[in-house]
Amino acid sequence: DIQMTQSPPSLSSSIGDSVTITCRASQSITTFLNWYQQKLGNAPKLLIFGASTLQSGVPSRFSGSGSGTDFTLTISNLQPEDFATYYCQQSYSSPLTFGGGTKVEIK
Amino acid sequence: QVQLQESGPGLVKPSETLSLTCTVSGDSIQTYYWTWIRQSAGKGLEWIGRIHRSGHTQYNPSLGSRVSMSIDTSKNQFSLRLTSVTAADTAVYYCARDRIPDGYYFDFWGQGTLVTVSS
Fold first, then answer.
1. What is the predicted pLDDT for the residue at B41?
2. Most buried of A49, A73, B19, B46 (most Cβ within 10 A)?
3. Residue B46 in 3-state DSSP?
């Protein structure tokens, strides 16, 4: 199985800040990497697919980059509604696997 | 707008079988693949498997032979069956659309249903 490791597990930031979350795969997954946002009590919501393509309706302050084994999700100009947990997920090979999540909290 | 809704018992006894159904609206189940994912406090998000209208399935090997899925195109539903459950199977279970072949991501999710395994 491909292991997905996210860092940090949690972070605290202020409104207007820029934050970066890292996801590392245990082997190359080219760009088969997706990012999801999950708010308490809700299902995950797709933000970015193919490492860098923004899902329709997602604000442009979200961006993704990377290929191979190292990926990043950046949130610019953090807004109150962005405080949530973020997960990466590889779709390169079965079984599909998720990272452990990064909780973004208000400082 | 595509919507998915999970349904099934919220409580299952140990060693018994967990059965859930996902009803899809706003899209034909004959497109794409359809997947089950679960989330527990101990193991985070875990992909269970996926099914296509052709009957093709892929399962997470971690669940062994305990897992099976089926699809009913006439009802626009797909189902999950997990046998011999233990407390470790307690989780929120989600169904989702799996955007194969034009993408490889889960773009629509159900709200999730909590299944507790307990006597």
1. 84
2. A73
3. strand
Tell me if A42 and B103 make a contact (CB, 8 A cut-off).
Answer: no
Q: Residue B9 and residue A75: Cα distance in Å, rounded?
A: 39
pLDDT, tens digit, 9 for 90 and up, residues B71-88:
999 999 999 999 999 999
> Whole-angstrom Cα distance, residue A45 to residue A39?
9
Residues in chain B: 119
- Return d(Cα B61, Cα B56) in angstroms, integer: 16
B25's enclosing H/E stretch is: strand B18-25
Residue A102 and residue A86 in contact, taking contact as beta carbons nearer than 8 Å: yes
pLDDT exceeds cutoff 80 at B38: yes
CA distances from B17 to B6, B31, B82 (A): 16, 28, 6
B64 φ, ψ to 5°? 55, -140
- CB-CB neighbors (< 8 A) of B44 in chain A: 87, 98, 100-101
pLDDT one-digit tens code per residue, A38-52: 999 999 999 999 999
Q: Which of A32, A10, A29 is nearest to A21 (CA)?
A: A10
The closest of A9, A6, A18 to A89, measured between CA atoms, is A6
What's chain B's Rg over C-alpha atoms? 13
Rounded distance between C-alpha atoms, residue A53 and residue A102, angstroms: 20
CA distance, residue A43 to nearest chain B CA (Å): 5
In tens, the pLDDT along B87-119 reads 999 999 999 999 988 779 999 999 999 999 999
